[in-house]
Structure formats: C-alpha cells, structure tokens
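Narrative summary of target 7.
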Amino acid sequence: MSMYNSLTEKLGTSRSGAVLLGVLAAVIAAILLVVYITNYRDSVKSDTTPVSVMTAKKLIPAGTAGSQIGAKQLYTFTSIAKNEVASGALTDPAALNGVVTARDVYPGQQITTADFTTTGSATAGVVSSQLKANQRAVLISINAIDGNLANVRPGDHVDVYQQISGSSGAIVKLFRPNVPVQQVTVTGADGQVVLVVPTRDSADLLYASKHTELFFVVRPASGSSPTPPTTASSQTMQTYSRTH
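Modeled conformation, tokenized:
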C-alpha cells in the first residue's frame, strides 16, 4: 500500500505523471460506463422479454366454473412483455381446476388468480348477482347417479325430466326444458344442484325434487333445437318396439 501511495505521489508531482493519472481515470470511467450500459440493456431486455399468459377470448361472467372456461375454450394465450404482466396472471390451465370466477373477466383481459374464488366459497352472493328480477336459484338434492349428474357442469343448460310412479306403471315426462345450471356438487352417490328457474316454477321444482325422481339431459352449448314435451311409459316403449 505504501508503494502505491509513493508511486501516486511521484506521478502527481510531475506533469507527465499527472497526465498519466488523468488517462487512467478516464479509462476506468469508460470501463464503468460500459459495464453500467451493459447491465442496463440486460435489465431492459429482461423486462421486455415476452411471457405467454392466459387472456379472455370473450366475456367470462362471474360465477363461471374454471372447468367450463377450459371446456368451452373461453381463454387464449397471449404474449405480453414481462413488465406488463399483471400480478397473479395465469400461465397454466391447470390453475382453473376447482375455482369459479368471482367477478366478470372482459375480452382481452389477463386472467389472474384474483379473478377467482374456490368452488367451496362460491356462496349464494355469486349466484344472486346473476339472477334477473323474475328468476330464482333453487338448490335441490338428488341421487347423483340416478339423476345423471356425471356430465352436468355449472354453465350448462339441461332438460329436466321427471319420473312419476302410478297405478299403471311409471312414466317419464319432460318437466322443464332449457334450465340453466349454476352450481353442481357431487359426493359419491349424493348430489346437489342449483338450477335457475322462473319464480313461478320454484315451488313445482322443490315439490318434484322431494316426491318424484328427476333426471338431467345436457343440451348443446349453442344452437339447440326446442325439446318436445314428450312422455314415455311402458306402453309407448312397446309401441316403439313393434314399429322398429
């Protein structure tokens, strides 16, 4: 250290030494500037690196099950600069499992974890926010196996059929067509489903769920034809067998 100080003092006491020190200082400053610029460019490049995130293809209403978002392809992947990616933005469709949207997600909007709540905490508040003035959300409990809930998902529309036992045998008839499904919960053979019906149909649906057997037939997502109000019985089945 003493040798360095001595050399610096000697250089500083002469004209040529002062020039040399100035050159060295300029070289060191240039090196530091190059390092700074390089690091800055790397930082900027890192911030603008494109990241593929999930964005909404169309409006995703509050209360939509994550499984339906995937099944109906309501999302797409969009490349966005890293510094513009929203906090909690989804990059893996697996994150849609077991959740429902807690708010509307608009077309082109990044889909984030903040847009969802777990299925278990999707309370009636989420359901009620989507009801019209003349609609009611009715929760009914049914046998999930006999009622065929295996293929029913929130967001589906179903035709509800009713089986009635009588003195001449059981009959199956259309109870209500094109009924929106809000929530579905299946635990083994037990099932619960929330259906949206006109206010006038609430009592009928509750009575039918307690005193008859109900079955659900899933309708096409779009462009479905009207369901005829047909009735089936052992007599109609025998007639069908004789004519085919």
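The chain has a mean pLDDT of 81.
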